[in-house]
Amino acid sequence: MKFPKVLIIIIFLGVMATFVIMSRTGSNKMVSPQIVSQNQAAATPTPTPTPVLININQSSNLETETKNLTPDDFSGDFKVLREEAGRF
Amino acid sequence: MRTISNLGLHPWGVIIVLLLWWQIILPVTVFARVTPEDIVNSKKEAYESRVVNYSAAHRQNLEIFSKKIVEVNKKRTDELDRIMVAQALILDEYETRLRQGSGGQGRRADEIEKARYWITYAHEAVAYQAAKIYIFDLSGESNITRDALNTISFFQSELNSARSKVINSQKILTDVVKLK
C-alpha cells in the first residue's frame, strides 16, 4: 500500500508549524516570574545614591587622580575569614 | 528499509512517528535552560538538606559565617563601585577638557572609546560580583572547616577577579589621560 505523498507533505508541514507555534509560546511560558520581575525592575531604574570618591574640577590633575584610585588589597579580609573558619 | 517493511511498518510512517517524537522531546531540551538562579536554588537545597543533620552550634557558626561573607562582599564591591564611578568621572572630565581645548578629541576618540568600554566592562563585573551569593558545599560535619575554607577560596578568587578588572581599566584610563 502506498502512502500518498501529498498527505506526507501536509503532515510534515503540520508538524513543523505546530513545533514553531509551540516553541514561540513555550519560550514565553518558560520565563520565570522572578526573571520577569527583574526585567521590569531594570526597565524602571531606581536611583541608588553612590557616594563619589573624588571631586574633579578644572584644576585637577587627572593622571594623579586616576593613580590614586587603586583598590585596596583584600587579603586582610580573607585572612580574618580563614582564621574564623579555623575555629569551627 | 526492507527490515522495517518486513515488520509491517511503512517507512514514511516511521519517519512521521520519529518527527512527532522529535517535536515532543526538542522543546524540553531547548528550553530547559539552567539560569544562575537555578544553580543557587539547587545549591541552597543541597545545603539545607545537609545542614539539618549538623549540630546546632555548627549550624549557627555556618549562619554567622555566611553573613560575614556577605558583609565582606558588600564592603569590597561598594568600594570597587565607587572607584568605577570615579574612573568614569575622570574620563568625562578629560573629554570635556579636550572639547574646550585645542579640539583634539577627534584624534583621541578611539582611545577614549576604548577606555570607556573597559570602564563599563569592569563596572559590570563589579555589579555582577556584588550580586553573588555564596552557599557552602557541605561534604560532612567532620569536614566543616575544610568546606568553609573552600568557600572562602572560591569567594576570594572571584572578588580578586573583579578587582583585577578594575585595575586593568585604571591602567587603560591612566594611559589615556597621560595624552595631552
Automatic annotation (TrEMBL), chain A:
<keyword id="KW-1133">Transmembrane helix</keyword>
<protein>
    <submittedName>
        <fullName>Uncharacterized protein</fullName>
    </submittedName>
</protein>
<keyword id="KW-0472">Membrane</keyword>
<keyword id="KW-0812">Transmembrane</keyword>
<feature type="transmembrane region" description="Helical">
    <location>
        <begin position="6"/>
        <end position="23"/>
    </location>
</feature>
UniProtKB/TrEMBL annotation, chain B:
<protein>
    <submittedName>
        <fullName>Uncharacterized protein</fullName>
    </submittedName>
</protein>
<keyword id="KW-0472">Membrane</keyword>
<feature type="transmembrane region" description="Helical">
    <location>
        <begin position="12"/>
        <end position="34"/>
    </location>
</feature>
<keyword id="KW-0812">Transmembrane</keyword>
<keyword id="KW-1133">Transmembrane helix</keyword>
